[in-house]
TrEMBL record:
Transmembrane residue ranges: 12-33, 45-67, 131-149, 161-182, 194-213
UniProt topology in membrane: Multi-pass membrane protein
InterPro entries assigned to the protein according to its UniProt record, in alphabetical order: Integral_membrane_TerC, Integral_membrane_YjbE
GO cellular component: membrane
Lineage: Bacteria, Bacillati, Bacillota, Bacilli, Bacillales
Organism: Peribacillus butanolivorans
Protein name: TerC family protein
Family: Belongs to the TerC family.
Localization annotation: Membrane
């Protein structure tokens, strides 16, 4: 894959979009870990916590790119990414991160928690890179300012324009489908371009439809619980 080719550029744009839609968790994570610290220390926590988290993600992503060369793991990774894309559309995530009492404790909390929670980003970036290490590093380096300075803004944009999440989930679904069809032992099943691209389209549409239906159900359940609570308090 050469620079400035359509494949390289589309892969880079996919990685950047993945970083954007998944940056909300970083904003929440940093906010929860640093909320008890003074303002001047919060800025340092944002910088060093984000840098540490990005370094861990670069190492983890490069390892995943190598691991995905093992037969069968493209299929497993693709199926995991389908689930991650589906979960992205459902607003029922909880973040159990306790506030830290010191700057270094907050930085450590952010790095450890991000390493544990960052499977979605690592797997998605590895899948979108198609094994290109240069693309992985460039994509993740682009994500550094996004995580450090733009995550809070992105979180606000996502709240105001929910379709950003839908676009991101679609890209994750497309990446998952491409990982599945790239599995060597399934090559014969997708040798026909019509079958290959049809499968990718079905995966993306299926994720968006299933996620939308599930989100509607979640919102109805929340509305019912709120109504019951109001009636009990009243």
């Amino acid at each position: 894959m050469d620079f400035l080719t359509g494949e390289f550029i589309s892969g880079l744009l996919a990685i950047i979009m993945i970083d954007l839609v998944l940056a909300g968790d970083n904003a929440i994570l940093i906010g929860l870990a640093a909320r008890k610290l003074p303002k001047d220390q919060q800025k340092k926590v944002i910088i060093w916590g984000a840098v540490g988290a990005i370094v861990i993600r670069i190492i983890a992503t490069l390892l995943v790119v190598v691991i995905l060369k093992v037969p069968g793991l493209h299929l497993i990774g693709g199926l995991l990414l389908v689930w991650i894309a589906y979960k992205l559309l459902i607003d029922e995530e909880e973040h159990d991160v306790k506030p830290a009492d010191s700057m270094w404790a907050a930085i450590k909390t952010i790095i450890i928690a991000d390493a544990l929670m960052g499977l979605d980003n690592v797997l998605a970036v590895a899948g979108a890179s198609h094994g290109n290490f240069t693309l992985v590093v460039i994509g993740l380096l682009v994500s550094i300012p996004v995580v450090m300075y733009g995550s809070t803004l992105i979180l606000k944009l996502i709240e105001r324009y929910p379709f950003i999440i839908v676009i991101g989930a679609g890209i994750l679904g497309w990446t998952a489908a491409k990982m599945i069809v790239a599995e060597p032992f399934m090559h014969n099943y997708f040798a026909n371009p019509f079958v290959k691209y049809g499968f990718e389209a079905i995966v993306v549409i299926g994720i968006l439809v299933a996620g939308n239906l599930r989100q509607q159900k979640v919102e109805k359940e929340k509305a019912i619980r709120n109504k019951i609570q109001i009636e009990q308090n009243g």
